[in-house]
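pasting for the record
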Amino acid sequence: MESTKQDILKAFYPTFIGVLIGLVLGAVLWIVVRAPSGEKVTILPPPTAAPFIVEVSGAVPRPGVYDLAEGSRVNDAVEAAGGFLAEADKSTLNLAAPVTDGQKLEIPFLAGMEPPAAIVENPIIPTLTADLIDINTATLQELDSLPGIGPTLAQAIIDYRDENGPFYDIEDLIFVDGIGESTLDGIRDLITVGDYVE
């Protein structure tokens, strides 16, 4: 009797294993072949925000227009322009304040540390030395432009210069025929002898 039960179990064991393997394979096959339900989900990247355009000027090494990310602060704009100059007045700035698109940041200078303004020369008023006419190198037209000197006296100055060498002093013009004290007085502040001044 005992051996009969064991014989039955031995005979049933392969069948049991076979059924179990069949169930597992069937489940796997069912999972693989079944059609997915619902629509396909697509994950899109978040939209990239357009950069802010900010102008930075004043007490920075590289003033100019810079692209800054959304959420940037005044400190970020200053860093983009190279940081602060030593002459910058930081006390009036809120470095944590947000910047806005199209904003202009003027970084102030300390009192008395402002750079000198560009000097615009008035072309009508001659400077002390830059516009003086060198009588040793001047052309006929340049000499003719002097008050009281026409083309005849201008040519006389050039002829004297060619024959006697350079003028060493503006007073030497008195030796040119046709130039007197009054004529020399009228042009004295407008002429020079350049490198020949003693």
